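Section: Multi-chain targets

For targets with more than one molecule, the full set of components is provided together so that the structure can be written out for the assembly as a whole rather than chain by chain. Components appear in the order listed by the source. The example entry contains two components.
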Amino acid sequence: MGNKLLLDQGSGGLASHRLVADVFLRHLANPVLARMDDAALINPKGPLAVSTDSFTVDPIFFPGGDIGCLAVHGTVNDVAMLGAKPLYLTCGFILEEGFDLDDLERIVASMARAAKKAGVRVIAGDTKVVGRGAADKIFINTTGIGEVVSSRPPSGHRARPGDAVIVSGTLGDHGLTILSHRQGLSFEAPVQSDCASLNRLTLKLMQRLERVHVLRDPTRGGLATTLNEIAQQSGVGIHLEEPAIPVKPVVASGCEVLGLDPLYLANEGKLICILPGKLADQALAVMRRDPLGRDACVIGTVTAENPGKVVLRTGLGGRRLLGMLEGEQLPRIC
Amino acid sequence: MGNKLLLDQGSGGLASHRLVADVFLRHLANPVLARMDDAALINPKGPLAVSTDSFTVDPIFFPGGDIGCLAVHGTVNDVAMLGAKPLYLTCGFILEEGFDLDDLERIVASMARAAKKAGVRVIAGDTKVVGRGAADKIFINTTGIGEVVSSRPPSGHRARPGDAVIVSGTLGDHGLTILSHRQGLSFEAPVQSDCASLNRLTLKLMQRLERVHVLRDPTRGGLATTLNEIAQQSGVGIHLEEPAIPVKPVVASGCEVLGLDPLYLANEGKLICILPGKLADQALAVMRRDPLGRDACVIGTVTAENPGKVVLRTGLGGRRLLGMLEGEQLPRIC
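Its structure, encoded as tokens over all components, is:
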């Protein structure tokens, strides 16, 4: 049973207005959104960070989250990685005719909770409905806007030899959760997505440590791909110590079963922080005081050697190049 | 033949980076986008107008445009309707595995031309690839940011009794083009989408006529639905003179064939301007000097009677209520 979405609810007419009022405005209401003009009017200060992301994750509900809160966390985090304070989100929904309206409401309510927790407001939205089979249930685009709080925002271009490479916690949780859930696998211990908004953690880092060089969240493509991007943008090498890289035992064994490498799996609530080596302890102290940075640790260093490359020193002392994610097909992970 | 999109190109790994470099950056490049951090850094002035819109139009190529330029025009126009100067766009692509890469390139090139013409820069983007059958070819979300140039931005809440209601040109062109193209119909005269960016026209209006009360582009749901929204937001009545409403003969006859009402069809390059009646001639003069406002005319007035309603006086002198679009199924018109 349950109410199903009709094509008409995307027509822009009366049925659309009712859907917007009943579902979207009810959960996401705020004075800016409530004006319902063609565009929202905001008055932020100073330079801004802007990021956009579309979410097509399958399944749409998974242990630890759903496509709604993920769409908030993902974009909040991208804005936060510029050392900015995320303030505003826009949301674009593409919905399939026949989609369950109770599921839609559950997703929108989850977005509202995630937005409230992250301190951002949804200021503009759009809903399109396409015929059965023209989309898979629900896709969400979010665009985030935040105020830049630092005079020198962190950037993938700013890694320098001698910098320490820190991660805020264990790797691969989100990716393994989605892939194992999709395949109907269960493990001895529960595994769940790490999806969370990191903006309070990044703000603390920026306030206490002016000299953060790079902040980046290793989502699609995982740690290895993100570090390759940074190595190339900054023209530096990155050397990692494999034994130092935190991976939950259940994720490590799940990866073995599925033939996956946790260093290439998506994370949705973790960040990479690169800053001068002598500040590493201070950064770790800040991160470990935050629940989302409890397992933070130094995993490597930035080098002048091997510019553009990421080199992993394994537990046995061998070295291997970690390239970007290549040839694997892990669609709809976020 | 032709190159087809692979799932791998949405993985976030090496294949994704190549796609971004080969297609997106090549056409849309600018210094902000080129930094390729998690978020873009911009430094706009003063209050901002922000709007988001997803585009799912079917067919993706149609007479007068394509989903790419439409995604630029649509969001540029929404920002412009706040009397703002659109400056920045973000783009989120959701692509179906197997989508033709030549078509993708044609669409991105069309976006680039439309953005250049409108004077906006694409500052951030995202690409997701979903499996065959999980989306229909290509969906595009654009979010636009513009600087508000007026101390009292136009708003759907500001229509006042005595105001004139002006449209910038003929109605129904886009909607009829899409629907007839989809059904394989052709008419004696060519019909094509009016899709265009109206921001230069709105800027002229705002500069010459401080007292513009409402600007709104009548897209999905058409003129009738948009005027109902304004009547409700402002708590006023809107009286229209049917003979004054401009509709191209080919659109009028096409609508008769298909059983459609041009007042409910989507427009993608037209605006409604509502302002004090005594300024109507001045506004018409400004609009008619612009190629996109050549056919501008006054179509009605704002009244204190019938608050929240739109009343149409027909050519025969009768009156009827024009409600919002209701019960019709015209999906994927934009």
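Chain A touches chain B through 89 residues (CB under 8 Å).
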